[in-house]
Automatic annotation (TrEMBL):
<keyword id="KW-0112">Calmodulin-binding</keyword>
<feature type="domain" description="GH15-like">
    <location>
        <begin position="9"/>
        <end position="939"/>
    </location>
</feature>
<keyword id="KW-1003">Cell membrane</keyword>
<keyword id="KW-0472">Membrane</keyword>
<dbReference type="Pfam" id="PF19292">
    <property type="entry name" value="KPBB_C"/>
</dbReference>
<dbReference type="GO" id="GO:0005977">
    <property type="term" value="P:glycogen metabolic process"/>
</dbReference>
<keyword id="KW-0119">Carbohydrate metabolism</keyword>
<feature type="compositionally biased region" description="Acidic residues">
    <location>
        <begin position="1032"/>
        <end position="1043"/>
    </location>
</feature>
<feature type="region of interest" description="Disordered">
    <location>
        <begin position="1024"/>
        <end position="1043"/>
    </location>
</feature>
<keyword id="KW-0636">Prenylation</keyword>
<protein>
    <recommendedName>
        <fullName>Phosphorylase b kinase regulatory subunit</fullName>
    </recommendedName>
</protein>
<comment type="pathway">
    <text>Glycan biosynthesis; glycogen metabolism.</text>
</comment>
<keyword id="KW-0449">Lipoprotein</keyword>
<comment type="function">
    <text>Phosphorylase b kinase catalyzes the phosphorylation of serine in certain substrates, including troponin I.</text>
</comment>
<dbReference type="Pfam" id="PF00723">
    <property type="entry name" value="Glyco_hydro_15"/>
</dbReference>
<dbReference type="InterPro" id="IPR045583">
    <property type="entry name" value="KPBA/B_C"/>
</dbReference>
<dbReference type="InterPro" id="IPR008734">
    <property type="entry name" value="PHK_A/B_su"/>
</dbReference>
Length: 1225
């Protein structure tokens, strides 16, 4: 008889260890494992999946190293056991299919799949609310392992019902990047109070599972397309963005976590950035590693001797007592060894192997066991705290710990050479961090909607196909049709499961590939091309700017989502984008013509091959057929043709339809007050009555602002009537017809009704003064009087003012009985809103949209884009009525938040949404602009925009707010980009785009800027004009020109105002402030809010929860420039010892350190110093009578102090340091 080889004997020894240490805990019927003493009979999904991985590794080792047939027999047995385990876990989850369906729709934690089941019955072991069941990482780990095992040739999934359930699990986890859960340790927030968090480990596992299922192909291992699981690449990209912004942090309450080793290396391999992988690994080893393993996270009290075992939760104040005595977990040596093996670092492998061997526990039979953790004994606590890492620890918890023992088996197989690391990664996920592919060019096909559009483009030397000219094998559908198709994928009547929820958006990457459905190749146009969009799309420049930013996003993101083939984007150009024909003559014809040139310019730019740095190729559709990514969709219960027909009812509608309607319908209108023929250009006859109405409307159009800024004092009454330049400048001979944009529907019957109001002019010539309006006068106006006024006028602005008053006085559901029909005020508002959109009267658009509470379709996506990149948002009036958005919300939740914040402010309701949408767009394409920002306060951004407009155009506060409301969406986005990029706004053309010079300036795309910041100086010279005071100038200085003057003074004040509004802080600011608070026995006082010393006991130095506390205090400051100067003072406080040259500064022991007092002292030193220098400060705060001449700087601080550079002999830092030395020396 042949003797076994040495390797075979060693492999048998490992199998024998597995049989004695792991198999002894297995249930023979269900094949599930359980060994927790505190929870007998409980089988955790996570533990069982890792055991399955160990058995799979043994199976592969025996298949590879088999000496005899009996070795193959062992291999088959191990394979069957592994498959049975995976099937049992799947069955446990399938028994809760109803929960999957509910969770898909509502994401409620009580609807989550359970994280553990009964080992003998596969049923639940506790109630929905009795455990932290919502653990995205556990479900994702199962799906990842399923994909890897399937790719190796073992079939786990047996029928199409299981395929449908796996598809629904994909829908279950695909929102993981925005679903707070309890995390890998099942506790959520580290206080263990049941607070869910967004955890990087969960998001990483979700990303890995989605990528693996996308790569594995079919689950039946036979090439059948019916068993393919469909994954949307946009969800993968969202996870990537979230991880990039979070790592090496784990969550809000954990600044890092040793479990992150499982996502940067085996088994997830989900981080492609090698620098981020290295940074995360080094952070874990430096902060968490000890002699016996790694601590899970800082201040982890689990199973320490100081933990109160009688209660589950911790008091916040007791967390600090766990510091330096946290239990150490040997399992993380296994993770570190696997990480070193995959990164081919042999020295690290050997070092960690020796450390692991030193902490193993030996059983009675001599088997090596990995204990759950090592704990510091009570008698050693004090010594360990004073000298961390010096005391002996004892094993605690379960021994063996099945999760750790499984990983130890895998480590042994690799260390002994039975397997290569690549053999445990058949999907080659490990290579993503090492193999970098160059960005993939974006293929673009432009199609003309009609022959007229095609001719128009050909006239500009742009040759494109019409939609009806493409090859019949192609079908073009809108993105919403793809949503309906996905709603059918994963359906199972037996399990009562539907497909993907229809309310989830279809991302851009998902519509950038071909879909093969039956014999057809279907192309879905991007979602931003759908016609059911907001008023933003009436500004064609926003649409073309979105073309640019979306193509740039695809170019940057495509390679990271593991799709073979190139992206394809189909853009359909419609008549409305090019032609001014068919628009009412009260539209801005000049603007329309300019927009037409914008569309043509954008297409020409795409045709050059580069667009905003992205490589693009523009050809006909058929030219891209062989290079485009293709996804095949099959339906088992219906033919592909039937499915296509059902979704083809979603007719392709592209932005801005301009088809002519029957204009004769609205020539006459009957009224309860008698019929009359509407004539062109009629305005209200009774000007005194209309003046009353107009005043009432104007008083309720204000955007609420709050600041001590001199530019903004007048901004309470924010709306003045527009100058006559807004009145239609068309020729008097213009034809008298009007084109109804939209027919208003009867709510009861749904029948189309004729246009209710005839509108022939968009502006009003009246110059009504906006004086105070007595409420008694308003109450005297009867509904009949208002409706008579409405019947008299055909001027759009007058119509909106009258309807606005009807809305305020009688409500939106008041029946006006116009035309002897049921016509409510809301229906009239809908009609004038549509006309205002067509006329591109943005102030009127925003007012009517706000009254109707119209929510921008893009809002929820924009909020998600910001939040997944760790940018929180506040809406409402700064420091008074702000609401914070800290996690992604549904449309319904956002609607409630916006109503609470802007319920009585329709203009701000719309303006705030627009700003959030633009920020969400910019954060994807220009993420560097958002560095050093943690929370974006929309109220302050609105204030600063108005302030900048007041400065640029020399306007009063009221005029500035008026101008802000009339700015087009594209200009508003350009202004926000300018603010974010740290540059000052360039002035926009006052009179639209009627002059070629203005067209040239604005055509640069994102606005032009006068100077870079570094080219400007902030010098206080007593011979210059500052703050509006005229000072005589020397002749040689006058030669420098007024423009130079205008941009030198006030520059630092404006920068501080902008940075304060954007909540910018220096890098490492929160950690340095933590150190400061830790030194102060009574904490630090900011604006009457105290950051008490106890916060440093609850939270660690780099914990996001501490940053949130700081932001909460800073956000109570209404003036952005004062907030910024506070941040500068706090930054200098962090270097107190170096500044005052004392090791132990005399910090206050009986009261909090008052930062506001430090600034007051610094301001006083500044004023006194400038008094001796006889600078311009002597004309305000340093004068002989300061009470009379004091300037209007925020919080009593001299405005010239705000306008000083931070550094230098006369900089703010100089005076703050002197104040600190005076207080602490």
């Amino acid at each position: 008889m042949r003797s076994r080889s040495g390797s075979g004997v060693r492999l048998d020894r490992i199998l024998f260890m597995v049989e004695q240490t792991i198999f002894s805990h297995q249930n023979p019927i269900t094949a599930l494992f359980a060994n927790q003493k505190d929870f007998p009979g409980h089988a955790w999904i996570r533990d069982n999946v890792f055991i399955a991985q160990a058995l799979w590794a043994l199976y592969r080792a025996y298949m590879k190293c088999a000496d005899f047939d009996e070795d193959l027999t062992k291999a088959k047995e191990l394979g069957f056991t592994c498959v049975k385990m995976m099937q049992s876990i799947l069955e446990c989850m399938m028994r809760q299919a109803d929960k999957v369906e509910l969770f898909k729709k509502f994401q409620r934690p009580l609807d989550a799949l359970h994280s553990k089941y009964a080992v003998d019955t596969k049923s639940t072991v506790c109630g929905d609310a009795d455990w932290g069941h919502l653990q995205m990482d556990a479900i994702s780990l199962y799906l990842l392992t399923l994909a890897q095992i399937t790719a190796s040739g073992l079939q786990v999934v047996r029928n199409f019902d299981e395929v449908a359930f796996i598809q629904n699990l994909v829908y279950y986890i695909e929102t993981g990047y925005r679903t707070p859960d309890y995390g890998v340790w099942e506790r959520g927030d580290k206080t263990n109070q049941g607070i869910r968090e967004l955890n990087a480990t969960s998001i990483g596992m979700v990303k890995a599972a989605l990528q693996a299922l996308n790569d594995v192909g079919d689950l039946f291992v036979d090439g059948s397309r019916g068993s393919v699981v469909h994954v949307l690449p946009d969800e993968i990209e969202q996870c990537s963005a979230m991880l990039s912004s979070m790592l090496p942090r784990e969550s809000f309450s954990k600044e890092t976590d040793a479990a992150l080793l499982g996502i940067i290396s085996y088994p997830a391999f989900c981080v492609e950035d090698p620098d981020l992988v290295t940074q995360t690994r080094e952070t874990i080893t430096e902060r968490l590693m000890g002699k016996y393993g790694c601590r899970r996270f800082m201040r982890d009290g689990y199973k320490t001797v100081l933990e109160d075992a009688s209660r589950l939760y911790y008091n916040k104040s007791e967390l600090q007592q766990f510091e330096d005595i946290e239990c150490e977990w040997p399992i993380f040596f296994c993770y570190l060894i696997l990480d070193a093996m995959y990164s081919k670092d042999d020295d690290a492998v050997e070092a960690y192997w020796q450390q692991l061997e030193s902490v193993l526990v030996y059983s009675d039979k001599g088997f090596r066991l990995v204990p759950e953790l090592y704990v510091v004994g009570r008698e050693h606590v004090a010594a360990e705290k004073s000298h961390p890492g010096t005391q002996v620890r004892e094993p605690g918890g379960a021994t063996p710990f099945l999760w750790a023992q499984s990983l130890y088996v895998i480590v042994c197989l690799l260390y002994e050479g039975f397997l290569l690391p690549a053999e445990l990664d058949p999907l080659s996920r490990r290579l993503s961090v090492y193999e970098k592919r160059p960005p993939c060019e974006v293929q673009v096909t432009v199609l003309a909607e009609s022959a007229d559009v095609q001719r128009e483009l050909r006239a500009h030397d742009i040759h494109v196909q019409r939609v009806d000219e493409i090859d019949p094998v192609f079908t073009i559908l809108p993105a919403s049709a793809l949503g309906h198709l996905l709603a059918k994928i994963g359906e199972s009547k037996k399990l009562n499961l539907s497909g993907r929820p229809l309310d989830r958006p279809i991302g851009l990457l998902s519509t950038s590939r071909l879909y093969q459905i039956g014999n057809k190749f279907v192309i879905f146009t991007p979602q931003f091309m759908d016609s059911r969009r907001s008023h933003l799309m009436y500004d064609i420049r926003i649409l073309t700017d979105e073309w640019s930013s979306e193509l740039q996003y695809i170019y940057a993101s495509w390679n990271s989502v593991s799709i073979s083939g190139r992206p394809l984007v189909v853009l359909v150009v419609t008549q409305g984008m090019l032609s001014t024909e068919g628009l009412s003559h009260f539209s801005n014809i000049h603007l329309n013509r300019y927009m037409k040139s914008t569309v043509i310019g954008a297409i020409k730019k795409i045709n050059t091959g580069y667009l905003s740095g992205a490589r693009v190729v523009m050809k006909d559709l058929s030219d891209f057929f062989r290079t485009t990514a293709v996804s095949k969709i099959e339906f088992r219960d219906k033919s592909a043709e039937e499915m296509l027909q059902s979704v083809a009812a979603e007719k392709v509608q592209f932005t801005l339809h301009t088809e002519d309607l029957n204009e004769g319908k609205s020539e006459k209108m009957a009224s309860p007050r008698g019929s009359r023929t509407l004539r062109r250009g009629e305005s209200v006859k009774d000007r005194s009555a209309y003046s009353l109405v107009h005043k009432a409307s104007m008083r309720h159009r204000s955007i609420a602002l709050d600041s001590n800024d001199a530019d903004l004092v007048q901004l309470r009454l924010a709306y003045n009537s527009r100058p006559s330049s807004l009145v239609d400048t068309g020729s008097p001979q213009s034809p008298p017809q009007t084109r109804p944009l939209e027919l208003v529907k009867e709510h009861s019957s749904g029948e189309l009704r004729q246009q209710l109001l005839k509108t022939t002019k968009k502006g009003s010539d009246n110059k009504t003064a906006h004086g105070a309006l007595k409420s008694e006068q308003m109450h005297e106006m009867k509904a009949d009087d208002l409706l008579d006024l409405l019947n008299e006028t055909t001027v759009l602005e007058e119509q909106i003012s009258i309807i606005h008053c009807l809305w305020m006085k009688y409500g939106p559901d008041y029946d006006t009985e116009l035309g002897c029909q049921h016509i409510t005020v809301r229906m009239l508002t809908e009609e004038v809103h549509a006309k205002a959109c067509e006329a591109r009267e943005w102030a009127l658009v925003r007012l009517t949209a706000g009254l109707l509470k119209k929510q921008l379709e893009e809002l929820s996506k924009a909020v998600t884009h910001l939040l997944v990149r760790q940018k929180q948002i506040t809406v409402g009036i700064a420091s008074k009525k702000e609401e914070v958005i800290t996690c992604p919300k549904t449309n319904e939740e956002l609607e409630k938040i916006m109503n609470r914040a802007y319920g009585d402010d329709p203009n701000s309701f719309t303006l705030a949404q627009e700003i959030i949408v633009y920020l969400g767009s910019l954060v994807r394409t220009e993420p560097k602009l958002f560095l050093e920002m943690f929370r974006l306060r929309i109220g302050l951004i609105v204030q600063v925009l108005a302030s900048e407009l007041a400065r640029l155009r020399h306007l009063s506060g009221g005029e500035a707010a008026d101008t802000l409301l009339t700015v087009s969406p594209f200009e508003l986005k350009s202004m926000i980009f300018s603010l974010l990029s740290g540059r000052l706004l360039e002035e926009y053309a006052e009179d639209g785009f009627q002059h070629s010079e203005a067209m040239r300036d604005t055509r640069t795309g994102i606005g032009s800027f006068r100077r870079q910041i570094e080219e400007r100086k902030s010098l206080r010279k007593s011979t210059r004009s500052v703050g509006g005071m005229e000072i005589p100038m020397e002749e040689d200085e006058e030669d420098e020109g007024p423009e130079e003057d205008d941009f030198q003074f006030g520059i630092w004040l404006r920068h501080r105002r902008i940075d304060g509004a954007l909540n910018r802080v220096p890098n490492g600011f929160y950690a340095i402030l933590w150190d400061t608070v830790h030194k102060m026995p009574h904490g630090v006082k900011i604006n009457d809010t105290i950051l008490h010393w106890g916060l440093t006991q609850e939270m660690t130095r780099k914990e996001i929860k501490f940053a949130l506390e700081v932001e909460e205090a800073l956000n109570r400051i209404a003036e952005p420039e004062y907030r910024e100067i506070i941040v500068e003072a706090l930054w200098l406080l962090g270097r107190l010892e170096k500044l005052v040259l004392l090791d132990q500064p005399t910090v206050p022991r009986d009261r909090p350190l008052d930062v506001d007092a430090i600034l007051r002292v610094a301001n006083q030193i500044f004023v006194e110093h400038n008094k001796t220098l006889e600078t311009i400060v002597t004309e305000c705060c340093a004068s002989e009578t300061p009470n009379k001449t004091r300037c209007d700087g925020a919080r009593g601080i001299c405005k010239h102090f705000y306008d000083s550079a931070p550094a230098g002999e006369y900089g703010t830092s100089h005076y703050i340091i002197r104040a600190l030395m005076q207080l602490f020396s």
